[in-house]
Amino acid sequence: MERSLRRKSVRLIAAVSRGGGIGKNGKLPWNLPSEFQYFLKKVTSVSRPGKMNLMVWGKLCWYSNSTSLFLLPNILHVVLSKTMSTAPDHAHFVREDFDSAVRMAAEPPLADLIETIWVVGGTQVYRDALQHPWCDLLYLTDVMADFDCDVFFPEFDQELFKLQDKFPGVPSEIQEECGIKYKFQVFKRETADGV
Ligand SMILES: NC(=O)c1ccc[n+]([C@@H]2O[C@H](COP(=O)([O-])OP(=O)(O)OC[C@H]3O[C@@H](n4cnc5c(N)ncnc54)[C@H](OP(=O)(O)O)[C@@H]3O)[C@@H](O)[C@H]2O)c1
Q: From the record, what ranges are coiled-coil (predicted)?
């Protein structure tokens, strides 16, 4: 990326079960309302009024979510697709690859507006985001149970992204909901490229 681009924090957020599963038949394999509230709080948080975050979606994720998610405050949505030429209803943009979405957020007219780029899956979008030099934080909820899944979070280098013992704004104790235990985790990039 050239110098004229305004660097943004690229963050991944996902809930991941034992064995790395994240989805089944186009949906989340679990129903964890408080975990979902945590997700909403993270992606909608901005440092001051008037700022916005960019949420990056794969096409299937976009269509598998209810419209209430698309109307969240402080968020612009970009859907990634190589086959769609116009943004789907309620989305603001469509881009054909991850780099184009990041570039859009880092260039005028959005560069002054966008604070954080939140990557919300699926697998290929996460994979591309993990390769991006601006990717600094992974918010991964460890769902401490086995679920039958057909979509998985990609492998990543845990020497490069280090699990944090504690992280601001992230409860460190184990949670339990609907009989399922889970814990919020943050992995932080530890290299010179990290923010
Ligand atoms: N547990 C969690 O936190 C979590 C988070 C996210 C998703 N999920 C689950 O994951 C599943 C959906 O994920 P998925 O991996 O199957 O599908 P997906 O990434 O949402 O959608 C795949 C499609 O999106 C487009 N696409 C994806 N990555 C792209 C890229 N880097 N560049 C350009 N286009 C890209 C392509 O569309 P075209 O074919 O049009 O090019 C591709 O066919 C669902 O079950 C969902 O519930 C779970």
A: none
Position in ligand 1 atom list of the atom nearest CA 82? 41
Q: What pLDDT shows up at residue 162?
A: 98
Q: End-to-end alpha-carbon separation of the chain, Å?
A: 16
The residue whose CB lies within 8 Å of the most ligand 1 atoms, and thus the one to mutate among 22, 40, 185, is 22
Instruction: Compute the distance between CA of residue 8 and CA of residue 20 in angstroms, rounded to an integer.
Output: 27
Backbone angles phi, psi at 19, to 5 degrees: 85, 0
Q: How far does the centroid of ligand 1 lie from the alpha carbon of residue 48, in Å?
A: 30
Q: What integer best gives the mean pLDDT of the chain?
A: 95
Cα 22 to Cα 12: distance, rounded to the nearest angstrom: 13
Can you tell me the distance from the alpha carbon of 156 to that of 151, in angstroms, rounded to the nearest whole number? Answer: 15
Ligand 1 centroid to Cα of residue 70, in Å, is: 16
pTM over 0.70: yes
pLDDT (tens digit per residue) in 39-60:
999 999 999 999 999 999 999 9
Cβ–Cβ contacts within 10 Å for residue 66, how many?
A: 7
Is there a cis peptide before residue 122, judged by omega within 30 degrees of 0? yes
CATH number of the structural domain 9-189: 3.40.430.10
